[in-house]
Amino acid sequence: MKISRRVMLKATAALPLAVSSFGFGAAAQTGSGTSGNVDAPPILFVHGNGDQAALWITTLWRMESNGIPRDRMFAINFTDPLARTDDKIAQANRSSTEDQRRELGDAIKELKRRTGASRVALVGNSRGGNSIRSYIKNGGVADVSHAVLCGVPNHGVYDWDEGLGGEFNGRGPFLRGLNEGESEVTPGTAFLTLRSDGMDKYAQADGRFVGKPGTPTGITSDGPALRGATNLVLGAVDHRETAFHPRAFREIFKFIAGREPERIAVTPEAAVAELRACAGTQFDPAVVEAFVAELNVAPTSELEHLTVYQRAVDAVRFTAR
Description:
The protein is α/β, with parallel strands linked by helices. The protein has two domains: 32-257, Alpha/Beta hydrolase fold, catalytic domain (Rossmann fold); 268-320, no CATH class. The chain contains ten helices and ten strands. It has helices at residues 5-13, 57-65, 97-115, 127-140, 173-179, 241-244, 246-257, 268-277, 285-297, 305-320, and strands at residues 17-19, 23-26, 43-46, 73-76, 120-125, 144-150, 190-195, 206-207, 212-216, 230-233. An eight-stranded mixed beta sheet has the order 1-2-4-3-5-6-7-10, sandwiched between helices. Strands 8-9 form a two-stranded antiparallel sheet.
């Protein structure tokens, strides 16, 4: 039997996921690493432009390892995650800001239904923060207790007279509407912004990352900060790390749970038990066993987890020959 590299990579990448109707919840922990559950609202994680819910899996595991119950967390998968070139002009396989706001609203409604909670916390990376702010500002404040915006281009990726219909133009109607007024946040929801100290490619003064090197964008590394929010600089992290880095997790957890996390690492024993319990249904059994075998001998450093994945893929490929 010959299994292609593409198939095995897809299978390995799918190990942590358990799909729900609008996204997924963490499926790697059967118990918390803490002595009891944390008093926190349900949390909905919102991915960025062109991304998907799977990016939040480590964050979900860390939350569970600190006492957030699995069934009180979900991550949305937007149907068409890429933004339109012009927000008002339909474009195949792309979404408008209104599409995103409506789909996020459905996910919030579903999470509230499942948990019985009156309000939820929202955590978004990049474009996901635009959807969060839009939902809250347009009548959703009663549904949202906390909003954490990670690397969100709240004042645009650029601020230009051209391309005013673009969602990421700080001079365009969408972002001007969100930022109008003395405060740039909606009263009634607690806002936290997390940003990089100059390493976020979408918060740069020079236009090289938007195809115009040497042209000022009108944006600086302070672009993600909002008047009226708690604004934190995480240091030299990149655009995605503003949401997925361990430093980001610490601040997200503190802001929502009201205390320091007890641990940053994921509790591995429960994760392995859950993977094996779901082998043959949600996960490929051969990939599970190869992954667990490599996990048992691999270094524990989080930076080396990708090596573990690749070694698991190689092990299954070798076995299949």
